[in-house]
Design brief:
This protein has one domain: Sulfate adenylyltransferase (Roll). Helix content is about 25%, strand content about 25%. The mean pLDDT is about 95.
Length: about 110
């Protein structure tokens, strides 16, 4: 699949302090955004560690699974939904809204 141009820089992918801590602890391995922030294979640093993007793809919010919510660092899909709505007051949950999924793995020395 050919990807459209990025809409933001990779260093803006995970910015909230709690999310950064979850990435560093290995509890968060994915981030959904309204735009595309990274290319597959691209790397970035958080807390002195390097991470590589392993997948970038579009998805409708209504297609998101419980396992994908856990990869985002939430215990359940309902917790993910509640968090997103709390971050964006007044925004409705739109299951057909398309977001860009970014998945990554830590880069290990070797």
């Amino acid at each position: 699949m050919e990807l459209p141009p990025k809409t933001c820089a990779i260093d803006r992918l995970v910015t909230h302090e709690e999310g950064v801590a979850q990435v560093l602890a290995g509890q968060k391995t994915a981030q959904r955004r309204n735009g595309r922030y990274a290319d597959i294979g691209e790397t970035w640093e958080l807390g002195g560690r390097t991470f590589r993007i392993t997948a970038v793809y579009p998805q409708m919010l209504g297609e998101m699974t419980e396992a994908q919510a856990r990869a985002e660092g939430y215990p359940s899909m309902e917790a993910y939904r509640a968090s997103i709505l709390a971050l964006h007051p007044g925004m409705p949950w739109v299951p057909k809204a398309r977001v860009w999924v970014h998945e990554w793995q830590p880069v290990t020395a070797g």
